[in-house]
Design goal:
seven-stranded parallel beta sheet, 13 strands, Rossmann fold
Length: 328
């Protein structure tokens, strides 16, 4: 019943670990707690998990082969792995490309090597990204679409991760499912994502940068819906495909493509303040719109997202104010 969760100090990782522990499954959490964004926020997430029965934290870099290999005895009884650790962020990949190769290619391979040697393992669920769709102009994005034209190194490493996982499934019979996450937000969210970035600026009276002159759409997906999708996937190991390979890819999105300006409007209302906006051109590596086709995910695991931004953003704001000690 033990589940290995990498990236456990991360936004999605913490929530997934909490959900697993709540249903009585022990969790071995792995995280390097790096400083890509606030270490204090990551430590606060870990503090929520620290005293829960069944939780064990391993502070290690997934790209460190020796460190992960040293955990082999502890992971021997694990029946599942939720591999979420990665170097995130499209724009940062322009500044530090090596971090993406280290975490998203080497680290991904190290964890798959560990997984194939875990005798009781039934399923690996790993994080991919909607970024793999690149400049795809056909909406909604379907898992059947071509994804061989990435527009950022981040996207290229995520697609590489899917190919590597497919190879491990083919060679070693490893059941694996990749999840293409679509713009996840909610309580304990990442400070480099839109909801947190905008809330910080609005509350401080700073202008927010709105790219592509505001002509952006995103399939904003609330964290509780994402966690339901992750656990539903974990509980349903990938069956063999037509070639006998136990690998597949799902979209996890809200199946709603929201205008960025509408998103800002809902956030303003929840915060009780107006945003000062600076309209800027499209940024390198970015795309104008994302929209998830989730029919395959719904058919396979019953995935049904239920949270529109009108409900999700006020919940995020409530957490944001509490975390930062803001009254009201």
């Amino acid at each position: 019943m033990t589940i290995v969760v990498t990236g456990v100090a991360g936004f999605i990782g913490m929530h997934v670990a909490e959900a697993l522990l709540a249903r009585g499954q022990p969790v071995i959490g792995i995280d390097s707690v790096n400083d890509y964004y606030s270490v204090a926020l990551k430590e606060a997430r870990l503090a929520r998990l620290a005293d829960k029965p069944g939780f064990r934290l391993v502070r290690a870099d997934i790209a460190d082969r020796d460190a992960i290999q040293a955990q082999a005895p502890a992971m021997a009884d694990a029946t599942g792995m939720v591999h979420l650790a990665a170097q995130a962020g499209v724009r940062y990949s322009l500044e530090n490309p090596y971090a993406y190769i280290d975490a998203n290619v080497m680290g991904h391979t190290v964890m798959l090597e560990a997984a194939r040697r875990m005798p009781k393992l039934e399923h690996v669920v790993y994080a991919s990204s909607s970024s793999v769709y690149g400049g795809n102009k056909t909406l909604p994005f379907s898992v059947a679409d071509r994804v061989d034209r990435p527009v950022s190194l981040y996207a290229a490493t995520k697609k590489a991760g899917e190919l590597i996982a497919h190879c491990y499934s083919h060679l070693y019979g490893l059941p694996a499912t990749g999840l293409r996450f679509f713009t996840v937000y909610g309580p304990w969210g990442r400070p480099d994502m839109a909801a947190y970035l905008f809330a910080d600026a609005i509350m401080a009276g700073r202008p927010i940068r709105v790219f592509n002159q505001g002509q952006m759409q995103r399939d904003f997906t609330y964290i509780d819906d994402i966690v339901g999708g992750v656990l539903g996937t974990l509980d349903n190991p990938a069956p063999p495909d037509a070639d006998g390979v136990r690998h597949r890819v799902f979209n996890l999105g809200n199946h709603r493509s929201e205008s960025l300006m509408d998103f800002i409007g809902v956030l303003e209302q929840a915060l009780g303040r107006k945003a000062q906006m600076v309209l800027e051109p499209m940024q390198p590596g970015d795309v104008a719109a994302t929209f998830a086709d989730i029919e395959a995910t719904r058919a396979a695991i019953g995935f049904t997202p239920r949270t529109p931004i009108a409900d999700g953003l006020p919940r995020f704001v409530q957490w944001y104010k509490s975390y930062h000690g803001i009254a009201g």
